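The records we work with from here on pair a chain with its fold. These numbers are not coordinates but entries in a learned vocabulary of local backbone shapes. To see the layout at work, look at the sequence and tokens printed below.
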Amino acid sequence: MVLKPCGAVRFAKTGTQKHKQPAVVRKRNYLNMEQQFEAVLTGTDTPVTGIVTERNGVYEFNSLDESLQLVIIKDEDGKWIRVSGTDPYLTGWVDELAEQIPGVINN
């Protein structure tokens, strides 16, 4: 099953200036709350920008150009692991994505 991002990203606004930092977007779902935020991964040639959707501890990154998908979770030892996504991928992306998750303390 391939999940697609809904593309809902809002940017924090202070006064009349719009900041580049994305606001966390919460959407109602019938079963649970979804959290979405923007993330950037280091590509081999250029940065890869995408939207991360969190559902019950599963974080799914989908690039805006739809060329990359990466799904990560924390295993029973508390380490971030890749459970799904497009190939090929860079192994450093797992830690790079985990570092961008708001409110999560990474070991």
Q: What stands out?
A: Residues 21-99 form one domain. Residues 1-23 have pLDDT under 50 and may be disordered. The chain has one domain: 21-99. The radius of gyration is 14 Å.
